[in-house]
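Students often ask why we bother predicting the structure of a whole assembly rather than each chain alone. The short answer is interfaces. A chain on its own may look different once its partners are present, and contacts between molecules only exist in the joint model. In this exercise we take two input lines together and write out one structure for the complete complex. Read the inputs first and try to guess which parts will touch.
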Amino acid sequence: MSNQTASSLKLDWAFAGCGVAWFGLQSYIIHSFGFDWYTASIDGLVSTMLLAAACWLINNNLRYYQPGKGSYINLFIWCVALAGFSMAGSRYCLPFISAQNTYVNFLSQSLVIRFFTNFLAIGWMAMISLIWFSQIDHKENEKRKGEAERLAREAELYNLRQQLQPHFLFNSLNSINALIGFKPDEARKMIHQLSDFLRGTLKKDDQQLVPLTEELTHLQLYLDIEKVRFGHRLNTEISCDNLCGSSMLPALLLQPIVENAIKFGLYDTTDDVTISLRGELEDGYLVIMVQNPYDAKTTRPRTGTGFGLRGVQRRLYLLFARNDLVETHANDDIFTTIIKVPQA
Amino acid sequence: MKRVLIIDDEPLARMVVREYLQGMDGIEVVQECGDGFEGIKAINLHKPDLVFLDVQMPKINGFEMLELLEQQPAVIFATAFDEYAIKAFEAHAVDYLLKPFSKERLQKAVEKYLGQTPAQTKKQNEELLESPALSPAQHERIVVKTGTKVKIIPVQDVLYLEADDDYVSIHTAEGSYLKNKTMGFFEQTLDPRYFVRVHRSFIVSVQEITRIDPYEKDAHLAILKSGAKIPVSKSGYAKLKQVLGI
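Now the answer. The structure tokens for the assembled complex follow.
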């Protein structure tokens, strides 16, 4: 930003310098036609000011509006018109300064030359401005593009990290490390559970629909691992009848919800925690309700969707183009998440 | 003999530390605790020399537990994955173990502790606790001690904060609580969209403000819903205007 103001300041100085030079040159030329220095410099000053005003106008115009490929003719007309205006300005202003006959005659004879020099100067200015501002635009576009690419990359990295669940993974490895010492059989079992869970996470893709029973089997692996980690503190209740067991839902949809419930429940109370999950088939929807306890005195559950649930909502939106499929409620120290999956 | 306490909410994680420490000369494990509240009690009771402390725990995390202690023991942190915390540990050269860790790594940490003077350890701890946002939880709650009880204040309940000598007084609708921190700490930790430092000695919850009145030269007064009048300095007023978008 400061860089840009610095360079536009430089441009302003160059503009002023050109003006001074133009003024000097014109005064000298008019003086060489035999007029006194006073008349010559007034003529030079007035003409230069008018020209500068025209140049400033065209420059400012191009700063905010860049003509498309077809409208260069407009620009040409603009230049002609501005050159005409500045010429007319000279024609009507200068006689007030010096009413000598010779000067007025000289003025009217030199109008054509004045018009063409003005036109050349304004055209030159227009060209420079055009190049200058299109270059700035180009640079800004590049910057914006770079920024957008960076954001996309960061989002992708974040997604990858979410899939990996480093916190869960490292803590599970730590539990296995503990079990190896005195309960090697359980350590071995946990390694198998962890492998099965990770494999299940990897092989499913986002678009795939799976029956609820399959999703629950995968979820059970996750819960079994968490139960080893947290011991007796974590209890789970899962209920769903045969009918809804065969209902379809997007793969791996429930795991982040249950993960959220466990984190919320286990880290918000010091007591034993029961996470319950209930599935029902209702009016063509598979309705899944996940509940966890929390402490209303010390935590204000975010209304709407919390951080972990945003991804779930996004996925359901992408699949069903609806934003009302995730609901959360908080009352009586129980936090409830309800997911509705439309059944075809 | 160095007396050691292990605080971690996962029983298996405590077991590893105990197992690794077994047979190390001059080390005695005095107790294991499953959360920060038990931890505070045990530290006050046993006055241990060294504490193995998990970061993520129920209700209050490891850092919040340390903040509530009158006397800081030497601490070796253990965590699985906490981006915030690891950055802070590195900045203050406090030793930490990344789960799962080896027996050798733990021994190295203990040796480092044994080689340090208590003054060094104390200084590192103090610096660590002053660094803003050790965990995302600190954006959401403030943990204070009232008498022997621990009070967890959700930041939504905070009306305003006021400097009070070496303490910061946290005003809520229910009353005020003192916390041994600096205004600068809260200015950096609380969400700047909702909390603005309007004065050298005041940070105010933007949502609580009902009106801002001019007051003397360059100064203003913010009137809160509770009726409290908070002085607003010239620069504080500029910040407030920016946050409120006026």
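Check your guess against this: Helices of chain B lie at 11-21, 36-46, 62-67, 83-92, 103-115, 118-130, 183-189, 234-244.
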